[in-house]
Specification:
By secondary structure, this protein is α/β, with parallel strands linked by helices. It has helices at 20-23, 28-38, 53-62, 82-91, 129-143; strands at residues 2-8, 43-49, 69-73, 95-99, 121-124. α4 links the parallel β3 (69-73) and β4.
């Protein structure tokens, strides 16, 4: 059975409580449970969140040889972190970048991603469903 890591960055632990007009009322725990239910029997989901850039880098590095692909919502680090980009490149696993909101309909600084050019895909603007789309996409790609 395939293993997919779902990694979440800063402030995503506050989903359902912060900026509800942008991110909605669904919590990160709701997203985790939904993925585990949706993909039960199809793949194992390894779900994590951290507000620290260094901790995210370490988690990515620890995935080497343990998972088949990564779904990452790096939050604000999407736009700034060369360290997270380098960690993803170092482990050489296929990854999909996910954002709950449409980052291109928001502030100009959010339009740039340090990850997108190396991602297998980028999904934004579909809310929590984007995570499911990302896992489906990775599984389809890994089956080919």
């Amino acid at each position: 059975m395939k293993k997919i890591a779902v990694i979440n960055g800063p402030n995503l632990n506050l989903l359902g409580q912060r900026e509800i007009g942008i991110y909605g009322q669904v919590s990160l725990e709701d997203i985790r449970r939904g993925l585990e239910e949706n993909f039960r029997g199809r793949c194992e989901i390894l779900f994590s969140q951290s507000n620290g850039e260094g901790e995210l880098v370490e988690r990515i590095q620890q995935l080497l040889g343990r998972v088949d692909g990564i779904v990452i919502n790096a939050g604000a680090y999407t736009h700034t972190s060369v360290a997270i980009r380098d960690a993803l490149l170092a482990v050489d696993l296929p990854f999909v970048e996910v954002h709950l909101s449409n980052i291109f309909a928001r502030e100009e600084f959010r339009h740039r991603s340090t990850l997108a050019d190396r991602a297998k895909g980028v999904i934004c603007g579909f809310g929590p469903a984007g995570y499911r789309m990302a896992v489906e996409g990775l599984l389809g790609m890994l089956a080919d």
